[in-house]
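2.7 Reproducibility. Because tokenized structures are sensitive to small changes in the input, we list the exact sequence used for Mutator family transposase, including any N-terminal residues retained from the expression construct. No trimming or masking was applied before prediction.
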Amino acid sequence: MSTSIGQSTFENQLDSMVREFVKEKLETIMKEEMESFFTHEHPELKNQKNGFYTRQLDTRYGRLENLRVPRDRQNAFQTELFSPYQRREEWLGEAIITMYQKGVSTREIGHFIEKILGHSYSASTISQVTDVVTEDITQWQQRPLKKRYSVLYLDGTYLKLRREDVANEVVYLVVGVTEEGYREILGFYVGGQESANGWRNILLDLYSRGLEEVLLGVFDGLAGLEEAMKAVYPKADVQRCVVHKVRNALHAVRKKDQPAVAQDFKPIYQANTYEEAKNRFKEFKENWQKRYPKVVATWEKDLDVLLTFLSYPSTIRPMIYTTNIIERTMKEIKKRTKTMNSLPNEKAAEKIVYLQAIDYNERWATRRLRGFGEAYEALQEMFKQRYSGP
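Resulting structure tokens (single pass, no recycling of outputs):
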């Protein structure tokens, strides 16, 4: 026990010595800065020195109290070490934002900072630090987009959001694939319940920001979403997510039949041509019509939009017959917010999603999706046929 106390005392003394050493070095640097400023840059102001003022600064070595900052009567000199109103080194703000992005609550961040600095930051202070991204969010959401995207993936997920009480509200997300085959989160929108009208407004926003030509929209079976897509991009094809459709069908059959039904679906969406897929569906219908007529009927009704991907180059079909690409992105966002129980307001939700979005876009910028390089010429020809001429 005494050994532990002694070790703790030693560590505290060492920390104090390090902070004092850093403080002395910073004060020395500022004195030299000021001397150079008046001697070499503004010798006419040399007699305007006016002592110093004290302030605190949070650094990676802890909080420095009573740091002596030199000043002059006209406030002409300003140290390069930090800005006049800066109370923390940039690393601390960046660390706070990174932890917030990873889903760490503002209260937990405050406790973490206390362990580093020996002084706590309140949840409201942490929130103020993360507010620096608010202006960035607005600019990012209004940024111009490329004119052409080969594919748009649309999906929504729900986060617990507090207004007067806590309720699930949707986060709409759009991922685009460029002509060259690179992914990019084009936009996100927070609030309310997912609806086709909500999606229509989002697509109109994308169009107003310059995205005018799309080959294919990929999404699940939300009622009215296909019509919303066609209203904004009438020349685009629509692909209903096959994985969603299979999953929903399996939920509608008895457990003992699920493996056989799943196996009989595969020849449909693994076919090489549209005609082959239709023939495989006829076989599926013959096998299961009597036992599960509703499952067969809903597939027959949606078969065309489930097989759209077969009219595209074979190298990209694994990427476009399902919304798996965007679903993985959504799962990561949900993972980041899982530890927060609920988000205190819409702005907090936007900060989380935005930080995740720019992180994804930076990583994706150099990673072309598999198959799009080989399909480039064919996709260019499709753009030409749809969007060139009258």
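The mean pLDDT is 82.
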